Amino acid sequence: MATHSIAFHERVDRALDDGSLQTALSRATDRFVTNRANALALVDDFDDLRARGRAIRASALAQLDDVLVRLSERIEARGGQVFWASDGDAARQYIVELARARNVRTIVKSKSMASEEIHLNDALEAAAFTVVETDLGEYIIQLAGETPSHIIAPCIHKTREEISELFQQHLGMPATDDIPTMTRTARTVLRQQFLRADMGISGVNFGVADAGAVVVVENEGNARLTTTAPRIHVAVMGIERVCERLEDLGVLLQLLARSATGQKLSVYTSILSGPRRADEPDGPDEFHLILLDNGRSQIMGGDYAEALLCIRCGACLNACPVYQSIGGHAYGGVYSGPIGAILTPLLQPELRDVHKLPQASSLCGACQSACPVKIAIPDMLLRLRADAVAAGKADAIERIAMAGWSQAMANPALYRAGGKLASLGTRLLAREGRIGWLPPPLDQWTRQRDFPPFAPRSFTELWAERQRRSAGDGQ
Ligand code: SF4
After folding, report:
1. Among 270, 291, 428, 454, which lies 20 to 30 A Cα-Cα from 117?
2. What domain count does the chain have?
3. pLDDT at 1
4. In a domain, 307, yes or no
């Protein structure tokens, strides 16, 4: 069943009850957080680097029309073709028609969240093309029939043992969970696909306007093969993923690698600027750049424009206590974690319970602290919550609770009586200082965690007593 057809709280419950997911998440997010901290410790002033990165991104977005036109003109001048896709339908149709017109049969893909966003694989497979993901993580989830659960680590939700089972089942690998053996097995299979492929589809980390080029970073070398071995290369880029100058990459690539994986730089950085020239030994005969809008221009200039600064490093996911507990699939959309809780309601508003995603945050601010371009994620989550209430999307229990809270806050006697009742009730339910069960609808809290009982005496009672005592001492 598609995750977005299930209620959000059920998706969360399933994730929290899934022991294997919990193991995989804790192993992976711990590793990412530690690697990032080590990488940041080697930079003299990371905060300054972040400020420069933010300024570069903000400047490009402030003149987006112009920057995109420059990028597009320079790519076309080098023999590339640029297609401006207003939405996912337009992008899918262009790529399917191109593949048909060129008698393509096999398509290899390197990791691309933009292509996930428009469900490109479904469209290509429906048109009878063979599509093979070549990033190892993407390949694993393709074998499993799943979707990515993290921006940069698509199979973060899978344990080594689960991946071994998949490889045994689909690739005939002997029983082992030795990682080098598993990667060798996948590499052997994928190499054949690169040789066979007629078209390669990649994402784009950054478009560079003055260079008329797109940049693709990766660690496995699969994106290099995807973009150069087949006779046609199609790059799918969200329109916001652009910068003005080649020198901007000196900041952006550092920020991306350190925040994403804790590397100084990713292993491979490819700067691609069109099809193979006459004097070049390799490269594609055709290069197509899809500039994907798909709702982004609606976000520009509005309350959530800052979300478009995102460079998709995944650091906010790794830092978020909610993501660490529920993983990516529970969010239901293509993008998960704190930035997904903003982007998904904006880009995929049709999904079930999408207005509840901004609630999946403790507002602790760990996401904003981790973000290499300092996106004010908690502020936007709060604004989205307010929007949902204003649109009448708060559920009945929340409305009743907030109406009761508002009455109590406006009436001191009611507030005090409510506090006393809550203190008595929770202390009666507590066992050894913790409450493991609350009656419905409050059991949604205690299903996954304890609740602390209210203090026997309220802060206002203690404060009044202290004031009385001080007044007595002064006499
Ligand atoms: S919001 Fe910031 S931390 Fe999160 S993925 Fe985007 S750039 Fe990275």
Report:
1. 270
2. 2
3. 42
4. no
pTM of the model: 0.91
The answer to whether residue 286 sits within a structural domain is: yes
The verdict on residue 117 lying in a domain is yes
| Candidate from 205, 241, 368, 375 with most ligand 1 atoms within 8 A of CB, to mutate | 375
Quote the domain boundaries for residue 272: 43-294
Burial class (CB in 10 A: 0-12, 13-18, 19+), 459: exposed
Q: State how beta strands 213-218 and 206-208 pair.
A: antiparallel
Give the Å distance between the CA of 344 and the centre of ligand 1.
14
Q: Which of 277, 294, 311 is the last residue of a domain?
A: 294
Flag whether 10 is in a domain: no
DSSP string, 328-344: TGGG-SSS-HHHHHHHH
Question: Mutate which of 339, 367, 380 to test ligand 1's pocket (most atoms within 8 Å of Cβ)?
Answer: 339
Atom index in ligand 1 nearest the CA of residue 319 equals 3
Residues in the chain, overall count: 475
Q: How many CA atoms lie within 13 A of 257 on its CB side?
A: 18
Domain harbouring 98, CATH code: 3.40.50.10420
- Contact predicate 252/246, CB 8 Å: no
Nearest CA to ligand 1 atom 2: 371
Residue 373 CB contacts under 8 Å (≥ 6 apart), including other chains: 50, 53, 54, 57, 255, 309, 310, 311
* 219-274 confidence digits (pLDDT tens): 999 999 999 999 999 999 999 999 999 999 999 999 999 999 999 999 999 999 99
Rounded distance from Cα 258 to ligand 1 centre (Å): 12
